[in-house]
Amino acid sequence: MRWFVLLMLFFGAVINFADKSIIGLAALPIMKELDLSYAEWGLVGSSYYWLYPVTGIFGAAWADRIGAKKVLGLLMLTWAILQFGVLAIAALPLLVIYRVLLGAFEGPFSPVAYNHADKWFPPRQRGFANSVVVAGGTVGAMIAAPLLVFLITQLGWKSAFACLGVASIVWFFLFQFFTKESPVKKYQDVQQKKKEKLGKINVKDFLKLLGSPSALFTTLAYFSTYILVVWFSVWLPIYLVEAVKMSPAEMGYSVAVIGIVSVLIYTGVSMLSDYLFKKSENWRVSRVFVVAGAMIFGAVLLASITIFQNPVWVIVAMCLAKGLTYSILPIGPTVMINEWPERGALMTSILTSSGNIAGIIAPMLTGYIVGLAGANKIAGYNLSIMSMAVLVLLFGILFALFVKPSIAKNKVELHNNLSENSNIKYS
């Protein structure tokens, strides 16, 4: 059952990321049909994240109380309704409203899915399990690229969006009727007791926990990488067409190749992290140093694109850079859940929602930079890429220096005080 649950979470992430990335694949026909400028397109990309961080936190906290299965099912049904609603979009305001609502209801998916996967797998396999969920996001963009580019070309961009609505409905029925909330009945009883004991959160102690070096610098590392996530989703297709001079078909296949290779890389990094954790149970070595090293190397490769602009090297460097920098996405939630296991979904939502603030800033900033470059669009794209590389490099170094995840004796008292009625103890 746990492998089927993980498979469903994987496909849920496929749909989730396809929903958000299809807007980039359809960028040129949408901009042409609605007569949008680069700045207006940056607004469209940014609008997805306006409510995303807030709903991510509240949705994940809600899942801690009523269960992940119910929340995930409700989210998926809402996505379907919104994707069918695209058929009515005829102007920029409606497109922005659609993106705001889609982001609001997709915000809770990642933290709830990560915590749900952790619930089904032991600690030595959680890095791999979360990497599978993250891989769903990359595969979502990868599958969407060639398939949806074809649908957009043949049927129009609105029909392609509606196809994702159908996929959401199919996922809902499979997940609701063929999975369980938790692995075994004993675990369900423990979870029920835990829910009954979870009282109000002590805000002062909670903020103190979030301000600890492990939570703070994990969040910042995730934030820097999520700028790349947004850029790859919103701007990569346009960059490949306008800067690298690819045809729409070549762009679609290139996005697919970048997605496939990057999945293999960050899954491999996660498996290496799991292996080292199993051998030593040393969080600093297995989780922090492995991920920080991958981020730093990936940032250097990303920066190289602005110097060596041969199309082949651009694709190779992007494959490696995306795979290496994305390694924080599956491991980051594991670090955050370790900080407060009984509120795993909430802790993960803080991480993902804080990281997704990057989604509000990055698309508009990139659009502004490219617009300022005028006819020299390549210079604008290069400046945006170099800025992202520097940010990932900086926070990768800080992640390595300051994140020291552990459940030490002096942390137990803080954890037990976070919920006023909590009697949970830590080993």
Question: TL;DR of this structure?
Answer:
Helix content is 82%, strand content 0%. The chain has 427 residues and is mostly helical.
Helix content: over 70%
Cα distance spanning the termini = 27 Å
- Specify the structural class: mainly alpha
Our Rg estimate from Cα atoms comes to 21 Å
Indicate the mean pLDDT.
83
- SSE sequence, one letter per element: HHHHHHHHHHHHHHHHHHHH
Number of helices: 20
User: How many independent structural domains?
Assistant: 1
CATH topology description: Growth Hormone, Chain: A
CATH class: Mainly Alpha
Residue share in β-strands = under 5%
Choose one word for the global shape: globular
Low-pLDDT segments, ≥5 res: 408-427
CATH level-4 homologous superfamily: MFS general substrate transporter like domains
Largest sheet: none
The CATH architecture term is Up-down Bundle
The tally of strands reads 0
Task: Give a written overview of the molecule.
With 427 residues, this protein is mainly alpha-helical. It has one domain (2-182, 192-418): MFS general substrate transporter like domains (Growth Hormone, Chain: A, Up-down Bundle). It is 82% helix and 0% strand. The protein is built from 20 helices and no strands. It has helices at residues 2-25, 27-34, 38-47, 52-66, 68-85, 92-106, 109-120, 126-155, 157-178, 185-197, 203-210, 213-234, 236-242, 248-280, 283-304, 311-325, 328-339, 344-372, 377-402, 409-418. The longest helix is centred in the middle third of the chain and has 33 residues, at 248-280. It is globular. 54% of the residues are buried. Residues 408-427 have low confidence and may be disordered. It comes from Rossellomorea vietnamensis. This is MFS transporter.
